[in-house]
Amino acid sequence: MPDRFPSWHFPPGAVPTPGYEPLDDLDVAILDPDQVDHLLDILEASAVELRKIPALERARRLGAVGRRLGDRGDPLRREAEERLPHQAGLSPAVARQLLDRMSGQWTPEALERLVHVEFSDPAVLDGFRLRPGAGDRVCAVGDRLALHVGSGNVPGVGVTSVLRSLLVGTPVLLKPGRGDVVLPVLAARALAGAFPEGAGALAVAYWPGRAIPELETRAFERARRVVVYGGMEVVRSIRERLPAHTPLVAYHHRVSAAAVAREILAGEGEAEEVARAAASAVAAYDQQGCVSPHIFWVERGGSVSPEAWARLLARELEALQRTLPARPTAELSARIQTVRGEAEMDRALGADTLVLAPGGTDWTVICESGFAFGGACGGRTARVQAMDRLDALAGSLTPWEGILQSVALECPEPRRTELARSLAQVGVSRITTLEHQPWPAPWWLHDGSGPLRALVGWVSLEMPEPSPPSC
Amino acid sequence: MSRSGEVKALGDELRAAVGAFMARASWDAAGREADDARFNELALRVFRYQTVAVPVYGQFVANRGIDPHSVHDWHHIPPVPARAFRRFPLVAGGEGEPVEAVFRTSGTSGGEATRGVHRVLDLSLYRASLLPTATRHLNPQGESLRVLALAPAPRDRPDSSLVHMVGVFHEVWDDGGGGFFADGQWQLRTLELLSALEDAEASGVPVLMAGTAFGYVHLLDLLAQEGRTVCLPPGSRLMETGGFKGRSREVARETLYGDLERRLGIPIRRMVNEYGMTELLSQFWETPLADPPGPDHDDLSRRSLVGPPWIRTRILDPHRLTPVPPGEVGLLQHLDLANLHAVSALLTEDQGVAVTRRRFRVLGRRPGAEPRGCSLSMEELALARSQGAGGVRDGAPVRTGGEAGNA
Predict the structure, then answer these.
(1) Most buried among A180, A420, B100, B350, using CB within 10 Å?
(2) A window 142-161, beta carbon within 8 A of B
(3) Domain A5-253+449-459 in CATH: superfamily?
(4) Are residues B35 and B156 in the same domain?
(5) Does the pLDDT at position B194 exceed 60?
């Protein structure tokens, strides 16, 4: 295990010498109430300098994060590679893949494009711009201070979140998830050299649970917007603690899935290709992401049966062990053993259930007959469910509106668009392909909303009526 | 479907055999080793009975290609996951068989849908397992005690195995002055409790306090709020179980026991942790009252758990379910002969480490540990559904009737 990692970044001068305590592989900063207030004062004040830089220029400078963490020779990247596997419970190969893919979303080009996609006229972030057809001028403003809370533990979530905040000109305090401490701190170090105004508007501090009540209470009181990633209970408790006038952007846990149409299973070659993409989507983040597919609805009627496709998926998952090995924790293995045992019990009760698995718990494919919906087990556990008609899928999903997030739809047109329309009616906010499922673009509609537009308020500047001509 | 006459007769015969084993079994380490062969022989007979009497288990074993008659070592008996008790009729005779009790877990994290269920065909087995074990670990002198339970009365919570257990203690050991000081929702009846503590202090009769860790936290809050400290009579002892899972407030065990010692006057070396599961009819206990006095009893980190001779525990590598070398952490797998009319071999998701051949420690989750990932877990899905998003069944896949045309 590498040395303990200081789990904080504070703007220069905010907390000159923080006290800290060890917690496993981390040092955790301990702040007293005065230090907390001083930190929040400095963050609030940083907005002025941050906003002096136009939004597109901010995007270019923030891109230092992607440039450095994407460069395998950079010392920051090397530190990330060294620490992530232990921190996030990933194998080194999975961590490397994750860093390559995520850093690509944080480059100057990607962030600039994000601003363009979100605001067709990015200058609206810097001043008032005419709103066509409305007769007024509008600008999009960030907040004086935002608090982002990431309890979800997927590496990269915290960096993406703070970059979004800084792009719209909002200073931010991030409390990252336990498994996502390293990347935001390294990102802040990247900014300190390349974009001091950005680093000065960013604070990162990890603390377990409610261990530093002053920090948490004051941050909740003073944040003008709170963004949370986490379980249902975390979201609920934060919602209860916030003042009524503080907007909450909540990305609660969701499940993602995939559907494979019979047309795709017409030949062995295409079925194999889809199985390969499915295995890669399952292996990316070891199914920890809200975009990771857990259930595969596979249509009967193709020349490759759903059961045969499940075997192809199992084969591809096994093949991935060579390039992207799984590293399940003991807790995860325990859960996987239970899920396998329960599937065996289903079979014993007469269900048409098949468990495909190697000797260990690196991956599991459970093949079932008919639609079923369940939460995620994780650790590369794929449920393949044979269905007669994918057209019935949306009807079956109605009770889970708000819980399902991404669906990879492997199906030829025009049927694909038809199925997508029906899935849109039951709250699925992203319909994609298996190849792209684990790696959404920076400008994806995150849980149905624009990622930057969710973080701004709009101000309208209405024009005075022209004075009547004097006579 | 219920048990045929033949299966029932076999069950009765084994009930007698398990009872005889319980009566004759040795509790000391050397004696237990001498009992290994007898335990093995009885475990295999019980296993074969269960594959016939519990149809779903029989099929589970058959699907693995295992002939029950070809298993000669209890270590090779296939365990079912403990969670399987939530969804499957793991009772002799299957779902239709009349039972004497239905025990459910408290189900704090996922609502009604995720509660474990244990249908108990023969409660006398529970009692036969509990009494000698609890006597050894809580009341080795067989004294008359004042039993003060931070738990509901059995009539208020007949579905709780813990309440049933405490009810047995009250029935067998109480001097007539004790009772149950929580309502059916586990809320403490504070006035009665304070008054009972005062009476107990004055009576001179040694007390047995029995409750969950969470109940004790509430008791300490109450005593602190009232500014009260009691000094329970010499010889008093305390049983603690249950932990904090799913509760809003967690306290380190050392802190809890230390505070209890100061507030109640019961020394830490007379506080005993019990580790049990709704799915098992036998329990594991810490041994400060059963073992000769020693410095280890004050140091909670050195304590370990031991079960009665009719339950055996293996510690398995979670990845491959093979035994771990002694001293390494693994999953706990139990084989409980008292589970005669259900399934004896149970795989838990609890991690532990062997201390000796018979003793182990359970490693709890770290306080504040966060679940990995941002995918909705099975428990969260169950919770979401129990709060109004349709009818989930234990977070496991739920079938709905939406797929027209699916055979």
Answers:
(1) A180
(2) 151-154, 157
(3) Aldehyde Dehydrogenase; Chain A, domain 1 (3.40.605.10)
(4) no
(5) yes
- Per-residue pLDDT tens digits for B365-407: 543 344 456 667 766 766 666 654 432 223 333 443 333 333 2
Cα–Cα distance between A408 and A443 in angstroms, integer? 18
Tell which of B293, B308, B323 closes a domain.
Answer: B308
**Which pTM does this prediction carry?**
0.89
Q: How many domains does chain B have?
A: 2
Considering only CA atoms, which of A35, A107, A100 is closest in space to residue A72? A100
CATH topology assigned to domain A255-432: Aldehyde Dehydrogenase; Chain A, domain 2 (3.40.309)
Could you tell me how far CA A232 lies from the centroid of its own chain? 16
The predicted pLDDT at position A468 comes to: 67
Report yes or no: B65 at the A interface, CB cutoff 8 Å: no
Of chain A residues 356-395, which have a CB less than 8 A from chain B? 359-361, 368, 370-378, 383, 385, 387-389, 392-393, 395
In a domain, B335, yes or no: no
Q: In the predicted model, what is the mean pLDDT of residues B134-155?
A: 96
Alpha helices in B80-239 (DSSP H): 84-87, 123-138, 161-173, 190-203, 213-226
Check: CB of residue A140 under 8 Å from CB of residue A151.
no
Same domain, yes or no: B161 and B267: yes
Range of the structural domain that residue B35 is part of: 5-97
- Tell me which residues of chain A have a pLDDT lower than 70: 1-2, 152, 210-212, 466-471
- Domain ranges in chain A? 5-253+449-459, 255-432
pLDDT in tens, A227-246: 999 888 888 888 998 999 99
pLDDT band at B115 (very low <50, low <70, confident <90, very high): low
B373·A344 Cβ contact <8 A: no
Residue B103 in domain: no
